[in-house]
Amino acid sequence: MKTVDLRSDTVTQPTAAMRAAMAAAPVGDDVFGDDPSINSLQDKLAAMLGFEAALFVPTGTQSNLCGLMAHCQRGDEYIVGQMAHTYRWEGGGAAVLGSIQPQPLEHQADGTLALADIEAAIKPDDAHFAKTRLLTLENTFGGKLLPLDYVQAATDLAKSHGLSRHLDGARLFNAAVAQATQLAGNNVPNLPQSLTDQGQAAITYEAIVKEACRIAQCFDSVSVCLSKGLGAPIGSILCGSADFIARAHRIRKMVGGGMRQAGILAAAGSHALDHHVARLADDHGLARRLADGLQGLPGVVVEPPQTNIVFVDLVDGAKARGAGLIPHLKSHGVLATGLYRLRFVTHLDVDAAGIDHAVSVIRAYFEHH
Ligand SMILES: *Cc1c(COP(=O)(O)O)cnc(C)c1O
């Protein structure tokens, strides 16, 4: 049986159709702005999300860095979640490379930052303080959809204090699928319909793009990863106004992200946006299937997944017994991570049989250890 790799949605292999699109892509030197495949990818996502311009970058980390540095000057400050990628998981790049001070805030249980905490963190104009310049949110955050009314309220609050708003939307389309699903009354079948073709998913492409656009339009800039659930081998895109993207473009060059004939990579991204958006609903269905399959194990607490990430906490006796779980899973062809909590992520290279195998291996472990 092939390995069921649930470590992350970054582990996917490009599909045959994606590889064909890459092989056929027209390319040029993007530092001269000459790459037609990059230009069309940038135009495509900017149009989908309602922005003037966009910038293709190799990674989400670089996309967020270019975004933060395009919003903030040296000595400015951004308000950010304590566990947000742009604070915790990017090597401190905004501070190291941008001289931008983070102001981290604790998350609420639903992943939001309390409006009162945001407001209290905004510094008055006083020589003692860094200049609070930006609010950065992340959606999905830890696999959770931030409620749209919260996103609107938090970004309105930031705007009313003169702050810019940046979204780390690494998994924006997972958020949009969850939001579209909620609007449709959660009427989505539990079994994946298809693992390859968005045409067969329960929520339409148009409905998902509409929700992605509604989320994105609360922000001045949005970063989206192509290399997560969308299944491209590489790449993120930063969207914003033409002026903002011009500043980010200069910073991208400065940090070494000016690539040349990278249209072969952009073609993978365009293919992903055309063919892998609506199928994200399948990943969400598989995450629920995994969560359902793990019910009823003593000491194994499964957080009900809203998107494609399942977190599992071990309590009581299961906590000590859980120590050997990850190596045990690996020896049975199932990969997972447990840096802060046990985490299982679904994606286009996992199917229902793989999830059922993972469930039975996990259940067997706890029943015998
Ligand atoms: C993966 C991810 C990023 C960017 O990661 P890269 O590995 O640099 O592409 C940014 N934010 C979030 C929330 C992510 O999950």
TrEMBL record:
Q: Does the keyword Lyase apply?
A: yes
Q: Which residues form the Aromatic amino acid beta-eliminating lyase/threonine aldolase domain?
A: 5-314
Q: Which Gene3D superfamilies match?
A: Aspartate Aminotransferase, domain 1 (3.90.1150.10), Type I PLP-dependent aspartate aminotransferase-like (Major domain) (3.40.640.10)
Chaperone is among the record's keywords: no
Q: Which UniProt keywords apply?
A: Lyase, Pyridoxal phosphate
Tell me which residues bear N6-(pyridoxal phosphate)lysine: K228
| GO terms assigned for molecular function | L-allo-threonine aldolase activity
**Pfam families hit by this protein:** Beta_elim_lyase (PF01212)
InterPro entries listed in its UniProt record? ArAA_b-elim_lyase/Thr_aldolase, Low_specificity_L-TA-like, PyrdxlP-dep_Trfase, PyrdxlP-dep_Trfase_major, PyrdxlP-dep_Trfase_small
Cofactor dependency: pyridoxal 5'-phosphate
Q: Which GO terms describe its biological process?
A: glycine biosynthetic process; L-threonine catabolic process
> What is any one of the record's Gene Ontology cellular component terms?
cytosol
Q: Which PANTHER family match?
A: L-THREONINE ALDOLASE, L-THREONINE ALDOLASE-RELATED
Quaternary arrangement and interactors, per the entry?
Homotetramer.
NCBIfam families, alphabetized: GntG_guanitoxin (NF041359)
| Assigned protein family | Belongs to the threonine aldolase family.
The protein here is known as Threonine aldolase
Q: Organism source for this protein? A: Rhodoferax fermentans
